[in-house]
Amino acid sequence: MPIDSVLLACFAADAAGSIGISGFDNWFSGLRAWHVYHNMQWNGGDEYVQLILSGVRKLAPSSSTHDPRPPVRLAHLEAIYDVLDFLNSYDAACWAVVCTAFWGVARLGEVTVSSAKAIDPTRNVLWKALMNWRNDSGVQSVTIRLPWMKTSHRGADLILTYEDEFSCPFRALQQHLSTNRDLPDEAPLFAFRTADGWEPVVKHILMRRLHEIWSARGLFLPSGHSFRIGGTTHLLSRGTSPQVVQKLADGAQMPSISIGGILS
């Protein structure tokens, strides 16, 4: 039988102050999904229940939420740019990663791997990734198909355009693909050549190096999510329309071709 509104309200009240907002919302969504699946009436929308839910959200422990993440700024990219050797295979890959994440409005974890032993083709973009290189009326761009994003597990398109900036993601990606050419198909897109073969760019190792660079410059230390926030902030501040930024963040669908032909 369906759960009545009083029992739902009691369930919610019992959780007040002990669980974060997103965690409780997941619980409640699960209950609703069960009712929908079994074609039963859902009473979670009753005014009485909604009043209790409002209280639960207000009483969520502060430890269950993150402080707002500060954005990566151009000063952070400049600090990285000043110390990297772009003829070095690892540095070229790292620079391509940070420029891609910033200008592509992506989370760092969406373009790196969590471990050299945890490469997953369903989550990590690979060297054989489908890409679309375009030149529309003089505007150069490349679209990379990501198999997974935090907000879209079905994947999305990451779009990079040529920028008249030292941190141009289009040039950074081309430099990386040239320096680290001919990697095997199973390698991540952002991998680099080593004396023994190749290695992927691992997120926590990259972040440790970036923090060392930023600390030496006296800059605050952003997180991996801060690249997405920083890219969004920068694009909006220079007048890019919110609709375009939203499309970049969500992953606009575009036709794709193989990477193979661009390095011949």
TrEMBL record:
Lyase recorded as keyword: no
One of the protein's GO biological processes: DNA integration
Gene3D superfamilies recorded: Intergrase catalytic core
GO molecular function: DNA binding
Keyword Cytoplasm among UniProt keywords: no
Transmembrane segment boundaries: none
UniProt-listed InterPro entries: DNA_brk_join_enz (IPR011010), Integrase-like_cat_sf (IPR013762), Phage_Integrase-like_Recomb (IPR052925)
UniProt entry keywords in alphabetical sequence: DNA recombination
UniProt cross-references to PANTHER family, sorted A to Z: P CELL-TYPE AGGLUTINATION PROTEIN MAP4-LIKE-RELATED, PHAGE_INTEGRASE DOMAIN-CONTAINING PROTEIN
Protein name per its UniProtKB record: Uncharacterized protein
Organism of derivation: Hydnum rufescens UP504
